[in-house]
Amino acid sequence: MSITIDLVGSENQRQVDTGTTGLDLFGEDRSIVAMRVNGTTRDLAHPLTEGDAVEPVGIDSDEGLAILRHSAAHVAAQAMQDLHADAKLGIGPPITDGFYYDFLLEEPLTPDDLKAVQKKMVSIIGEKQRFVRRAVSDEEAVAELADEPFKLELVQLKGNASDDDGSSVEVGAGELTIYDNVRRNGDRAWGDLCRGPHVPHTGYINKAAFALTRTSAAYWRGDQQNPQLQRLYGTAWATKEDLQAYQHRLEEAARRDHRKLGVELDLYSFPENIGPGLPVFHPNGGVIKREMEDYVRRRHLDEGFSYVGTPHIAKEDLFYTSGHLPYFAEGMFPPIDDDGQLYRLKAMNCPMHNEIFRSRGRSYRELPLRFFEFGTVYRNEKSGVLQGLTRVRSITQDDSHSYVTGEQAPAEIKHLLNFVLGLLRDFGLDDFYLELSTRDDAKKDKFIGSDEEWSTATQVLQQAAEETGLELVADPGGAAYYGPKISVQARDAIGRTWQMSTIQYDFNMAKRFGLEYTAADGSRQTPVMIHSAKFGSIERFIGVLVEHYAGAFPVWLSPVQVVAIPVADEFNDYLFDVADQLRKAGVRVEVDTSDDRFGKKIRTASKQKVPYVLIAGGEDRDAGAVSFRYRDGSQKNGVPIADAITEITAAIADRAQV
């Protein structure tokens, strides 16, 4: 007996024997780790049926790497339980560039434990244990997992598992399945509740291309009310070279870590007495922040925005009107009770901008009406997700809102996109793509608005995004509760992606606030509201810039643009005069007259990543000149003072990197 299947990418249908599996088709090619059958990803051991459309999943694809890493997570859990019989299993999903697995253990894991687990994993990989999928009933799963309390909880979640906490890799809405690791002699070595798919056997995991990287504490399913587990992180790649490249990226990322550089360059800090996620900017960091604010304030005014200001706190009722309560309640700080009147720290600026809009009557002639402010908002982020400047609780946004007619919305979104992309390029971020976040239609109760409104808004954003010519990536379910959004994803100097600017189409909030304008025909109409934050947040943007430039900012952003160093004390006055001329030209300059030796002064300026070091000795003074020393160590001697000032101010005006 034979069946006919379609091999995707092949021009012809193929006749195969009944019972043929993906292993029969692709088993000789170790670069194929799974297959898509009629669009659903399956193990290669899955038997094919008449008319199936079959497409191989390569290990070099994102999906293939995720499958490889998920399988590596299983091997890590098996190794852990082989070495620690008391270990209780949590969840072990693939993540970006790796995987993790959570365990409840009696003792904290040590570096030696990681070495032992990795050694055991190598042994399991060498055995080439097969991953065998087995469907079980709820009752069978409960009986088999009786000693695994966290797995039993997942069984009860069937149909309600979440991608957010990783539980969706274990259970879905359909049947429950357990993956057994089976030795060559047929004995079951280990098993785990899992949806799969997995690589055919553990030997597909390259012994030289995986590594356990670190451990951390983690609450079960991300809830602080739950038990605290130990999370084991690892990474797995197709080849040894890929692993080495990844490890090099990690080393480079560590060198660029904005938390470390923030201390070394005296930019900002996170005082414990103020609280986690609440940064303070020191004078050097304040210069960068001020330059950013001055730039974006000027750009907003040039783009037709009016500058406004709003308070940090408001009556709780305001946020019920906007819908932030209850939809965004978890992200807001608890209420403040003032003699029975409840107030909230604002998590968004838009409700207050709406109050400005409705403070008087509006005409269609005023639209587009654009408001902008530097508004500090407060998000009650969990302490476990706070990370330097890139995830904070006190957020300064260059927040703007455009009020437009429905007909004006497409042009306004294009206008905002051009604004955003130009801004990012001015700050040296010119490698980016767009992401379109839409509603999750399976969870409509989490979103406001009709199907028609969501469809219209999504189409407008999609068309504007496509017209930029940039890559557009779909993000289903990532929309705000009040409307879809475009976000700009920028790649930094070492290829990491950061979400930066956002543009959101909001057809709901204006109605909730009763905002209206008088149309040309005299009727009262509700405007469309478009939210945009060009930096996203100033704190996060600064953190990204620090890492993008590794602290060596373009001249215009550098806290100190020039350090003048005399060869000897007798040339101090000469360089003070040069510094005065530079300051009059708008240059931030310091003269190092410390007691340090000349060589140490040069090294100090280099460590502080100052763009220009100006040196003066006898010949320079006699010639009315200075000598340049650049960041790369190169020098240019005997430059007339006027020419030196011209070179430096031109680099500032051009936002040049030197």
From TrEMBL:
One of its GO terms (cellular component) is cytoplasm. Keywords: Aminoacyl-tRNA synthetase, ATP-binding, Cytoplasm, Ligase, Metal-binding, Nucleotide-binding, Protein biosynthesis, RNA-binding, tRNA-binding, Zinc. PROSITE patterns: AA_TRNA_LIGASE_II, TGS. InterPro entries: aa-tRNA-synt_IIb (IPR002314), aa-tRNA-synth_II (IPR006195), aa-tRNA-synth_II/BPL/LPL (IPR045864), Anticodon-bd (IPR004154), Anticodon-bd_dom_sf (IPR036621), TGS (IPR004095), Thr-tRNA-ligase_IIa (IPR002320), Thr/Ala-tRNA-synth_IIc_edit (IPR018163). Zn(2+) binds at C350, H401, H531. Its EC number is 6.1.1.3. Belongs to the class-II aminoacyl-tRNA synthetase family. This is Threonine--tRNA ligase. It comes from Enemella evansiae. The lineage of its organism: Bacteria, Bacillati, Actinomycetota, Actinomycetes, Propionibacteriales.
